[in-house]
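Lab notes, practical 5.
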Amino acid sequence: MRKLVFVTQQVDPEHPALAATIPKIAALARRLDEVVVLADSAVPGALPANCRARTFGAGSKAGRGLRFERALAGELRERPLGVVAHMAPVFAVLAAPVARPLGVPVVLWYTHWHASPTLWVAARLVNAIVSVDRRSFPLDSSNVYAIGHGIDVSEFECVSPEPHDGLTALVLGRYSEAKGLDVVLLAIRLALDRGLGVRLEAHGPALNDAERAQRVELERLAAELGLGECAVLGDAVPRRELPALFARSDVLVNNMRPGAPDKVVYEAAASCLPVLASNPVFDSLLPGDERFDRDDPAALADALARFAELDPAARAERGRALREHVEREHSVEHWAERLIDVVERA
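Output from the prediction step:
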């Protein structure tokens, strides 16, 4: 029996960040006899029929670690193809000493700019590392395999916004300094001063004290710039509402720091929503003037002005090309095929 152990933080279709993990697990399940998901918590009924969820939540870090080790050891009795640790390097650190002596490979999926001490340890313990792109893993390693982002393209329809005046720019993601939203607000002010009718709509969670403080600071900056209704800094939206949000927007703006590519860029692209982004890792997705200098508000204002000059047909053509790229290189089916291939070769 072809079985895979997949370790993640939560299985929750309503989670603002982790809900996208469920279609990835489902894609793996379509290719395997069984996927066992080890998670801190899991919503009943969220996984396909040939998946089992085992939770290791506890009141302390030590308790969670102990329950995790017990659950993993139980699943290794019937040797699986491998253990995949999803995003949290600590799972790989805990799994490797248990799984690898039994000949079960451990693979870490990680796509983020932050290189923690735990990640350094994990990178040396695992059999292989998978990421969106070799550049989306923050450490120099020859053991990194690019497998795409794993977007469930079926969640997103290719739609064009209803005709309206001006330009609606959308920003999605946590209120983190890494998102570069201060530069985006400054660019909106410059664009307005140049006579461009642009409105910014931002949505995202503030999950900790630092992000809550960042949102307050951004609201202060928007007020200082006199943006008023031209810049709305809203809360996170449920994942099921993303297609409607994309449909009423003209362009997604992404100013994430270099390194890991934001998943939302690929989700917007799957909806045929054009994108402006600063991260060099998007060079294959956005090969032209859709990219701008991350620290230069004027460069983003110029990019917005260039996009505003495109007629609806040109915008739609750009959107369709983005969706085709995501279907080819970043779909959840492509991701699952590549991940299983890496695990079997590890």
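Observations recorded by the TA: The chain has eleven helices and twelve strands. The chain has a mean pLDDT of 93.
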